[in-house]
Amino acid sequence: MGWGRFERLSETGELVERLRGLYGERLRAPTGLEANESRLKQEKLEGYGAAVAFMTHGILDERVPYLQQVALVLSNPELTWEWARGDSDSEGYLRMSERMGLRMPTELALAPACQTGLGEEVAGEGVMHLARAFQYAGAPRVLMSLWSVELASTLLLGERVLAEMEAGKTKDEALLAARRLLREKGYEYPWFWADFILVGERRVLPRAGSFEAGSFRLLMGIAVAVLAVASLWLVRRRRRAP
């Protein structure tokens, strides 16, 4: 099935332990053989809140030809006994089409694996990549990559993004802070940090009573007034026409 092509990412377990210090009991993080396809599909992702992160391999090329679509690599079902239990649908890969069927209304989905922002261009739809699948599943913002990534720097970036969000920063501010940290840690070349981008809904409407909300209402009022004047002018012009 091709799992020999994918190196085990033991460092992700170390990341989980560091995140426990950040989130405490709120953290839910299946790792190793627990991070399998059957469990993921049964997991109630609605309760994950601020962020759901997939720290694993991404597939875009033809290393697993029969998939025919971008996917994330999960645990080998031969090792997790999924096949022995009769779960024939578990292949160990979470395809883009399967991810669209999940319900995941989290604030941010992190998919920083290799090339998760790439995919096939479909007429009328644009590029169908893994991030698009997360959006279909309910995540308004997705952190994705545009090319192959380096493991250590990617884990560092993901950790800082989550820490900054936990501290109250916006998703855009969190990503900027994470990129800055990578450069400070010796990953100066853009190859390490420039491929990570945020896609999706950038912001919600401003809160009532805020300066931004007042400005928004003022602009909307001006726009309505301009449209009203323009409509009145057109009506009068038509009446004067012979």
Describe the structure.
With 242 residues, the chain is of the alpha/beta class. It folds into 2 domains: 3-204, Rossmann fold, CATH 3.40.50; 205-242. The protein is 41% helix and 13% strand. It has 9 helices and 9 strands. Strands 1-5-8-9 form a 4-stranded mixed β-sheet, with helices on both faces. It has a 3-stranded antiparallel β-sheet with strand order 2-3-4. It has a two-stranded antiparallel sheet with strand order 6-7. A hairpin with a 3-residue loop joins strand 6 and strand 7. Helix 1 (11-23) packs parallel to helix 6 (151-166) and helix 6 (151-166) crosses helix 7 (171-184). It is globular and about 80 Å long. The protein starts with 10 loop residues before the first helix and ends with a helix. Residues 204-208 have low confidence and may be disordered.
Broad shape:
globular
pLDDT under 50 segments (min length 5)? 204-208
| Number of DSSP strand runs | 9
Helix content: 40-55%
| Secondary-structure element series | HHEEEHEHEEEHEHHHEH
Structural class: alpha/beta
Major pleated sheet = 4 strands, mixed
Put simply, the count of helices is 9
Q: Provide the CATH top-level class of the largest domain.
A: Alpha Beta
Task: Give the terminus-to-terminus CA distance.
Answer: 78 Å
The CATH topology of the largest domain: Rossmann fold
In CATH, the architecture of the largest domain is 3-Layer(aba) Sandwich
